[in-house]
Amino acid sequence: MQTDKIRNFCIIAHIDHGKSTLADRMLEYTGTITDRKMQEQVLDKMDLERERGITIKAQAVTIEHQGYELNLIDTPGHVDFAYEVSRSLAACEGALLVIDAAQGVEAQTMANIYLALEHDLEIIPVINKIDLPSANPQRVKEQLLDIGIDPDEAILASAKEGTNIDQILEAIIKRVPEPYNGINQPLKALIFDTLYDSYQGVIAYVRVMEGSVKKGDKILLMSNQKSYEVDEVGFFDPAMQKKEELSSGEVGYIISGIKDVRNCRVGDTITLKNNPAEKALPGYQKVQPMVFSGLYPTDNADYEILKEALEKLQLNDASFTFEPETSEALGFGFRCGFLGLLHMEVIQERLEREYDLDLVITAPSVEYQIIKKNGEELKIENPAAFPDQSEIDKIKEPFVTAEIHLPEEYVGQAMELCQDNRGDFKDMQYIDQDRVTLKYEMPLSEIITEFFNQLKSKTRGYATLDYELEGYKESKLVKLDILVNKEVVDALSIIVHDEDSYQRGNALVRRLKEVIPRHMFKVPIQASVGGKIIARVNIPAVRKDVLQKCYGGDVSRKRKLLEKQKEGKKRMKQVGSVEIPQEAFMTVLERNENA
Amino acid sequence: MPDLKFENANALYIHLPFCSSKCPYCDFYSVKYTKQRVDLYWAALFMELEELTQKVNNDLLQTIYLGGGTPSLVDPFFIGELIKKIKNSFRVIPAAEITMEINPASITEEKITALKRAGINRLSVGIQSFNDQHLKFLGRRSSSENNKRILTLVDQYFDSYSADLIFALPEQSLNEFEIDIEELLKFNPPHISLYNLEIHENTPFYQRYNQGELKLPTEELDAEMYELALEKLKTAGYQHYEISNFARRGYRARHNYIYWLYQPYLALGPGAAAFDGNCRSQNLADLNLYLRYYNPKNSTFVEFMDNAGGKNSELEGRAMKNPKTKATKIRELNCLSKKERMAEYSFLALRTAKGLFYHKFYQQFNVDFKSLYKEEIAELKENKLIKEGNERIYLTNRGKEVANKVFLKFLLD
């Protein structure tokens, strides 16, 4: 295809502003998908994505319209996947900026605009959901003007009702620049996503920037210098369709017998082995997990099933890591690394749903850098593995820049919350008369606890949060241990700031008192730092537990109640002589303000 | 459908599932009382009784128990007819204990005397409390004053009777409970049952409890109340013969004792459970179904309704759904494994003050209790939850308070 007949674009939007619905409508309107029974939001493939209304993996589809080839790249919609988003944007020349006519500009709208500008994309604003009674397109236009986008260029649309889809398609053809024509140069194809197929191996989603690629070509992955022979190239309609050749400007896929996604990383450049490009495309990073937690099967017999499940999930997700780990309290499990909390939740949910596993999950942690007094440097993401306090010289932890976007009336509450979570105020900007962006520098470890939930509740759900890793900084951190019946339970240890240790220790032991059932004996719960007890509560012994009435009709029922009680005991983790329920291991996360 | 055959049954339970209003803590099966429903029910109950006589062999009834619901709502005349019918259908020993539950809100002196004439010789009086606020909270329609009046009457006409109290209510103080006991002891009833408030699924209290509206007393206060009761009742001369039951000499509930001794019992009425020593069969708790199944004229239910001349929206609603069919399934049969039976036997026997006798266990199961539960017995003894003596084990006072923890040990995998 001639490059002047190609347009590559993405859709960027704040969550729930109607990105996926708009994509569906465009596919319908252009006849790309004729089946009226198509499931809503074709591009979000996983059930989980559909349920949560978010895109986790990038998708692509080629739309034919009026002799043009319009390539839509649907990007992940969450801060955890910021890198993937940036690679998707790098594959485009233009972006549809979808804004909810009732909600107006939001935090992610802004973040998306900055991203699009960074990638030099032509932005076509679409004011969506004009069918809503509460729609106020005029206000959105004023907001656009405030942020430096020409409101006259905005298209008013309703993806739900299919209003003005033609205008949007026309704008894409007219306003998105045609891709650079580098057909005579050596191949440079940008990988913006990968998918693992058990028959075909890794399917690389690519945008060909320069040159061309066809079946039989010997390709070279520029980051790791691995080379493969191309089995198949093609495009998405949105199913995979074989094609002779992918050439400069086009979007499609390459299959070349790569067996491991880790050898085919998002952001890498594919070139030809015999005629390689001089330089790879800019912006490649090997993404690293930022959040870690221990995953343990509740039933130790499920260890192998969990292992297989993790291996399968990793086939499709190079950013997710795991390695075996042993806990005294929980037995054999895995320490897993995730891009962020959402990524963690998604993986956990998939394990529980797709593999029917019952898991104990330890509180998420970040990776700490520890410099010991003897000069040794350690990277540790499991609090249980921390060296003794006396051996530690310095501890560094990851910091992020957090951007919180919220209505002005909640600013006080949000600032207080940030400060409580060791936030360092950096900036505050008004987006319009009543919307504010707060910028804080905060330790990542604070963000991955209850911060986001608390922020939501303090702002009645209006605040949104974005964060970006800044780097490591020294902090005065200590390891807080929890002792149950005088024994340290390794899976309950957390790393906290020295100043918070007393308060956190107290809150934690109180919370555990609520969660751990009474035993036949008194069970002390203690929090300690460096061997010193800083908080203690006692779970009193069972005082009364008797089924008072027991007559003819009750006997079976009473037996079943007892059996249930016995079953419940089995599902708990036995630590010494104390039975600890699964949920106790997650309470470490919670910060009950009333505690 | 497989059905039970009863050998040597000594007890009969009859469920009368009618109430004026449902108490929010109660999970026994009941429907709203209407005279017409009782009329229909009586005919059906007699039919089930007929059927039951066919399944019983070598019966010798020592106890009959009419529970509910609120049996005292039913016209004593019917009760008399029922007892006659039972005596005609089964062998009933002359000194049989024939108990009926009564609610002070639906009983009069006239009814009390009529019940006595009808053949009832023991009453179980649902007092629950002498505190008007607590009675209201429990959804009881009686008052403290009325409770006292009725107890006086019951005491006047009946030699044997029991009074129930419920304790460990939300916000109830130890002192308030002490007053309840003292009030009750003024009547010196021959038998007392004490229950702490339990929250059962499918009750309004359960919902309120889950929504955090009901704050039950702490285990500590609950235990203090129980201990206080034990002490007071002991001083007053009562024997604590089962976890929740107290009696003056000679006035134990013989009917309930049959349950605890794991002996067979017969049952009639929706929701009622029978036991033949191996299996338990429970009638489905559904009056409409029951009325369709036990249908005296063998007519369709709609005709039956017409003949009864009744109109009742709920009954009709059900009948309309399935107008011409007779119900086919009336009860659930659940045969227990030996392990289940041994566990049940153990925890029932341990509820009694006498406890579990090894030789009786052996008679029942041909298994040596001491070797079967060797470790459990040792552990429980060490923790002072049970005591061993004279070829038996029994709960200590601490054991009674945490009986569930003891019973758990006797469940077998």
Automatic annotation (TrEMBL), chain A:
Location of this chain's protein in the cell: Cell membrane
Keyword Cell membrane: yes
Gene Ontology cellular component terms for the protein in this record: plasma membrane
Tr-type G domain ranges (all copies): 4-180
SUPFAM superfamilies reported for this sequence: EF-G C-terminal domain-like, P-loop containing nucleoside triphosphate hydrolases, Translation proteins
Catalytic reaction(s) noted: GTP + H2O = GDP + phosphate + H(+)
Molecular functions per Gene Ontology: GTP binding; GTPase activity; ribosome binding; translation elongation factor activity
Tree of life domain: Bacteria
This protein's UniProt keywords: Cell membrane, GTP-binding, Hydrolase, Membrane, Nucleotide-binding, Protein biosynthesis
Binding of GTP, residues: 16-21, 128-131
Gene3D superfamilies: 3.30.70.240, Elongation factor 4, C-terminal domain, Elongation Factor G (Translational Gtpase), domain 3, P-loop containing nucleotide triphosphate hydrolases, Translation factors
Keyword Cell membrane: yes
Known role: Required for accurate and efficient protein synthesis under certain stress conditions. May act as a fidelity factor of the translation reaction, by catalyzing a one-codon backward translocation of tRNAs on improperly translocated ribosomes. Back-translocation proceeds from a post-translocation (POST) complex to a pre-translocation (PRE) complex, thus giving elongation factor G a second chance to translocate the tRNAs correctly. Binds to ribosomes in a GTP-dependent manner.
Similarity-based family: Belongs to the GTP-binding elongation factor family. LepA subfamily. Belongs to the TRAFAC class translation factor GTPase superfamily. Classic translation factor GTPase family. LepA subfamily.
NCBIfam families linked: lepA, small_GTP
This protein's name: Elongation factor 4
From TrEMBL, chain B:
Keywords assigned: 4Fe-4S, Chaperone, Cytoplasm, Heme, Iron, Iron-sulfur, Metal-binding, S-adenosyl-L-methionine
Predominant localisation class: cytoplasm
Transmembrane segments: none
Gene Ontology CC, one term: cytoplasm
Pfam families from the UniProt entry: HemN_C, Radical_SAM
PROSITE patterns (UniProt xref): RADICAL_SAM
Molecular function terms, GO-annotated: 4 iron, 4 sulfur cluster binding; coproporphyrinogen oxidase activity; metal ion binding
Job description of the protein: Probably acts as a heme chaperone, transferring heme to an unknown acceptor. Binds one molecule of heme per monomer, possibly covalently. Binds 1 [4Fe-4S] cluster. The cluster is coordinated with 3 cysteines and an exchangeable S-adenosyl-L-methionine.
Family as reported in the entry's similarity comment: Belongs to the anaerobic coproporphyrinogen-III oxidase family. HemW subfamily.
Protein name per its UniProtKB record: Heme chaperone HemW
UniProt organism field: Halanaerobium saccharolyticum
